[in-house]
Amino acid sequence: MDNFCPIKRFDHLEFYVGNAKQAALFYSKGFGFTNTAYRGLETGYRKASSYVMEQGDICLVLSTGLTPDHWMSQSVLKHGDAIAVMALEVPDVASAYRESTARGAVGAIPPTEEEDKYGVLRYCAIHAYGDTLIKFVERSDYAGSFAPGFEPREVCKGNGVGLQTIDHVVANVELGAMNRWAQFFSDTMGFDLLVHFDDQTISTEYSALMSKVMQDGTGKIKLPINEPAQGKRQSQIEEYLEYNGGAGIQHVAYATDNIIETVSKLRASGVKFLRIPETYYQNLKERVGKIDEPVEKLAELGILVDRDPDGYLLQIFTDPLEDRPTLFFEVIERHGCQGFGEGNFKALFEAIEREQARRGNL
Description:
Blueprint: E1 9-16, H1 20-31, E2 34-39, E3 48-55, E4 58-65, H2 71-79, E5 82-89, H3 93-102, E6 107-116, E7 119-127, E8 133-138, E9 151-155, E10 165-172, H4 178-189, E11 192-197, E12 208-215, E13 222-229, H5 236-244, E14 248-255, H6 259-268, H7 284-288, H8 295-301, E15 304-308, E16 311-317, E17 328-335, H9 345-359
């Protein structure tokens, strides 16, 4: 297929939150992000406040509506604090919008230009699963700190914990919607199916899910899409859909090149992770082969390991970041392996179910 919608990279993820000032402090103190730019009342913007948080090549934007009727405020009322916008940098916004909408995407923001002394920023957006927007951003003619209207700053300066890039972004959708959204990314943006996991691969005694991983032509943008499968009890996907008020982004995986150091720093700052039983680490090297990291340290931190023909990976998952059991983060370190920890699905699912049971939601 022709590369009709080329993508350079993840540009940013925008969270709509109830209190962006407090959220900026949370992501700074907890996850090591630094607030590098700001837009709000002090800069002359009267509708919302936004804090740009950066670490490595990762950019998060935390935004709060300043009135009850603002769309961000309405989003928070429905979904809680959530990732509302997944922004992708493209070489040509007009082309990305034209090609994607011609192939079935529903436009949300037509091609738009904003200008200041640093140049011209171009963007547009299309609708995706739930109320999520996919935003296309063109930065070739813009040299400012983030976007026109934002002022550079360095407040809530995080120390960094070694998070480098966005590895993948995972969505949960309703039963029966996974194939439709996989086809959406194929049709409108030229993505290909990387791997499909059925309900036999990701299941326990009580619940199951199905997943398709879509990726762009470069392999830089990986978007797994999960849907629930029939089970004896409520799955993690159904719990998410209930408390999120529908489909949306479930978790973001951040890559690091030293997961032991990163997770140690995160734990020291108060970040909580899913609990993995000690039995998981018995005979670990026999199951996954030679790895460079000491198993005792992985067990102490609760880090999971998996291998495919190309190498191995290490991964760990935080508890939900908010009171609603919806959004969480993953930290991942890859050593050749480009999979998603298929060998850990059962251990991970059981760990999630234990937390669901504690919440009374299993």
